[in-house]
Amino acid sequence: LLSYRHSFHAGNFADVLKHIVSTSIIDYMLKKEKAFCYLDTHAGCGAYSFQSPEALKTKEFNNGIFPLWGRSDLPVPVARYMEQVVEFNAQSQLKHYPGSPSIAVQMLRDIDRLFLFELHPNEFINMCANFSGNRQIKMAKSDGLQGLIANMPPKARRGFILIDPSYEIKTEYHQVVETLIQAHKRFATGTYALWYPVVNRMTIDKMEKALKASGIKNIQLFELGLQEDSDQMGMTSSGMIVINPPWTLKKEMQASLPFLAKLLGFDNQGFYRIETLVAE
Ligand code: SAM
Question: At 227, phi and psi to the nearest 5?
Fold first, then answer.
């Protein structure tokens, strides 16, 4: 049933946005000495090659990470994310892309803990190979949304949860909102980031509406689009909805998204959204 493979898309403009927001959140959490937990509901395998047949087939990285590589004029939050990509490559050439769990592993301290969920059998095997021997990490080949609810609240009582589904099944848009509501009931102070693709705008409008009506407070939205909405073009834009964002996040996205929309957008059509869906 699961046919989505992230290796076709790693390092595209959606990953760029997702991982800039993630590094900004982790960076903020690292400022306090107290340990925290990182939970990735849809972790993928954690490492991707730009030379794989999958990556070369779509070449989506050409409208994502590649135009950013080697630039000296990056806004600070983008530069900090790029430091993670550089560290992962450990060389002067951009050959590999770190998935979300690799970025977290690079950034977290010994005291912090990671939970990674991945349902696809091969992706799970690759994930285990990439992170074997790391005792900070718990990996499970099971449904990440159920895993999220089961693990809330985390022992550390501080947490960053990344929810990054492949949305292969239409009901996932509804399911993620329901899961967020449940998880938030168990752990109201956690920082949650939900990634969404804009393939059909109405689906996202509905998701935003449901979150606004959920009773959850302090929700912000950050979106980066390469071209105008279109029902015929596949994913033209994608976003991150963040519950309990660090107070610094909005300012950091204000510094980053106009730059990215201009650099990556097609024919000056690039755009961004920075919105408070629900105030604190
Ligand atoms: N978060 C990763 C990153 O940023 O590098 C990319 C994840 S990719 C968009 C989504 C992943 O979720 C795929 O590897 C897919 O196999 C996996 N997946 C799909 N349904 C799942 C589920 N119910 N629970 C856990 N993983 C699932």
Answer: -155, 170
pLDDT at 222: 98
CATH number for 200: 3.40.50.150
Domain of residue 78: give its range: 6-278
pLDDT band at 232 (very low <50, low <70, confident <90, very high): confident
C-alpha of residue 143 to centroid of ligand 1, in Å: 9
Total count of domains within the chain: 1
User: Which residues, in sequence order, are bridge partners of residue 237?
Assistant: 198, 225
**CB of 166 sitting under 6 A from ligand 1:** yes
- Whether residue 1 is contained in a domain is answered as no
* Ligand 1 pocket test, candidate residues 141, 162, 166, most atoms within 8 A of CB: 166
**Global ipTM:** 0.99
28 Cβ neighbours under 8 A, 6+ residues apart: 246, 248, 249
C-alpha of 170 from chain center: 19
Which tokens go with 144? Answer: 């990440």
Q: How far is the CA of 179 from the centre of ligand 1 (A)?
A: 15
| CA 246 to ligand 1 centroid distance, Å | 25
Mean predicted confidence (pLDDT) in 109-126: 97
Active site residues: 164
